[in-house]
């Protein structure tokens, strides 16, 4: 069975690729210093904690497994390089990418933040009645200022979708000078859009 710390690290690569943010996996050891201040608000630093979750690299460093330090360094490098590419995609705006997890790495999320406004998330229109489904496969739900993109496993029309059938792809809040996005990885919050949306709000308040 794959170690949850390894699985979480792989989740960063998959998650960022899915949203169109490329991840650079190379041997370049550039220090990836501060980003530009385009978009307003100056530089952007990831919170030391996010609602009780700690940075995954920090947890990895304290794990009693072989090559823990090397794996932690790899996570930190991927986050730094991803942040650089995110900044570049937004014309030099300050940006940060950071993974967080609980101590047993059952709940893992990726924070993606940039000091710039972004388009609201898009999902295609799908006619659930034509598909004879209770809810469309792709769905956008709004919780206050946060928009969440969901994937729903097929539930026949007339049946009630279970909590486990709902999968959060991402939740995002955007405004002048800041976009905050949270992507759950694996279990934990992956079936709880309200909790992911609440985490976005907490990150927003810490980064504003």
Descriptive report:
The protein is an alpha+beta fold and 208 residues long. It has one domain (4-207). Helices cover 30% and strands 23% of the residues. The chain has helices at residues 4-18, 56-61, 68-89, 128-131, 193-207, and strands at residues 54-55, 95-101, 108-114, 138-143, 146-152, 166-175, 178-185. Helix 1 (4-18) runs parallel beside helix 3. The termini are far apart.
Total beta strand runs:
7
The count of domains is 1
* Outline type: globular
**Main beta sheet strand tally, sense and closure:** 7 strands, antiparallel
Query: Over the alpha carbons, how many angstroms does the gyration radius reach?
Result: 18 Å
Q: CA-to-CA gap between the ends?
A: 40 Å
Series of secondary-structure elements, N-terminal to C-terminal: HEHHEEHEEEEH
Strand order of the largest sheet: 1-2-3-7-6-5-4
Q: Average pLDDT across residues?
A: 84
Percent of residues in helices? 25-40%
What is the SS-derived class?
Answer: alpha+beta
Summarize the structure.
This protein has 208 residues and is α+β, with helices and mostly antiparallel strands. It has one domain. It is built from 5 helices and 7 strands; from the N terminus they run H-E-H-H-E-E-H-E-E-E-E-H.
Provide keyphrases for this structure:
208 residues; alpha+beta; 5 helices; 30% helix
Topology:
Layout: H1 4-18, E1 54-55, H2 56-61, H3 68-89, E2 95-101, E3 108-114, H4 128-131, E4 138-143, E5 146-152, E6 166-175, E7 178-185, H5 193-207
Antiparallel strand pairs: 1-2, 2-3, 3-7, 4-5, 5-6, 6-7
């Amino acid at each position: 069975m794959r170690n949850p710390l390894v699985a979480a690290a792989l989740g960063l690569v998959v998650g960022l690729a899915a949203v169109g943010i490329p991840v650079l996996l190379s041997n370049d050891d550039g220090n990836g210093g501060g980003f530009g201040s385009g978009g307003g608000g100056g530089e952007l630093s990831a919170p030391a904690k996010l609602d009780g979750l700690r940075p995954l690299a920090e947890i990895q460093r304290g794990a009693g497994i072989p090559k823990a330090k090397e794996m932690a360094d790899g996570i930190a490098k991927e986050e730094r390089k991803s942040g650089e590419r995110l900044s570049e995609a937004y014309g030099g705006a300050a940006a940060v990418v950071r993974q967080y997890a609980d101590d047993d790495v059952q709940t893992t999320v990726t924070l993606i933040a940039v000091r710039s406004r972004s388009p609201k998330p898009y999902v295609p229109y799908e006619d659930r009645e034509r598909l004879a489904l209770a809810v469309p496969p792709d769905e956008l739900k709004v919780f206050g200022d946060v928009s969440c993109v969901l994937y729903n496993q097929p539930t026949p029309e007339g049946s009630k979708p279970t909590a486990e059938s709902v999968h959060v792809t991402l939740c995002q809040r955007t405004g002048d000078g800041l976009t905050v996005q949270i992507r759950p990885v694996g279990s934990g919050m992956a079936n709880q859009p309200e909790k992911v949306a609440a985490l976005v709000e907490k990150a927003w308040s810490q980064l504003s």
